[in-house]
Amino acid sequence: MWMLVIKLLLNPNNLLSKASNAVTGQITNDPYMREIAISSVSGHGTARGMAKLYGILANGGKLGNKQFLSQETIKSLTDPKMIGESLNYGGKIKMGRGLYYSKNPMDEDVYGHPGYGGQMAFGDPIHNIGMAYLTNDLSAFGYGNDPKFLALQKEFYNCLSKIEKSKTSLGTQFDMLSAS
Asked: Which of 10, 12, 80, 133 is deepest in the core (most CB within 10 A)?
């Protein structure tokens, strides 16, 4: 894995290097450039907003009792449309409409989108949650593989697992009290 990353980063002729060199902080922070609606590069938001958006997707288009997206729309967005080798990513990928599939630390499918400089946001339909990792700096990682993101994601799922276990254990304790 690391050899692939190093190979991609050191090769000035690959698509990743060419694309990364074309986008500078001066361009990405220019207010006029941020107003241009280019779906693949001009997503600007907060970590809370991105996590909420992916949480809505992971919950079948719902937030609380309000339905924002139909099941048909959710299916259209989240069904894989392409599985194959990627010139950009340097390996096999699975994609939906604007969503990339990856695995969480428990080896379950999640879908989301990595961002320039190490940002990452995704929805987890198994656990009905959204998570976003946005930074104020740019890293060399851009495919959901930033070590800082991966460490945070791992701890996030460790906490989630503990919460789920405590709910199960509380339910079992309640059942035992009810039976006695």
From this structure: 133
The phi, psi pair for 117, rounded to 5°, reads 85, 15
47-50's contacts with Cβ under 8 Å and 24+ in sequence apart are 47/121, 47/132, 47/133, 47/134, 48/132, 49/132, 50/121, 50/130, 50/132, 50/134
Residue 33: CB atoms within 10 A of its CB come to: 14
Distances (CA, A) of 37 to 29, 32, 41, 164: 14, 11, 8, 40
State which amino acid sits at residue 87: L
User: Domain limits of the chain?
Assistant: 45-179
| pTM (2 d.p.) | 0.74
Cα–Cα distance list, 143 to 41, 76, 101, 119 (Å)? 14, 23, 11, 8
Strand segments, DSSP code E, in the chain are 62-63, 66-67, 82-86, 91-95, 100-103, 109-114, 120-124, 129-133
The pLDDT tens digits for 160-178 are 999 888 877 655 555 555 4
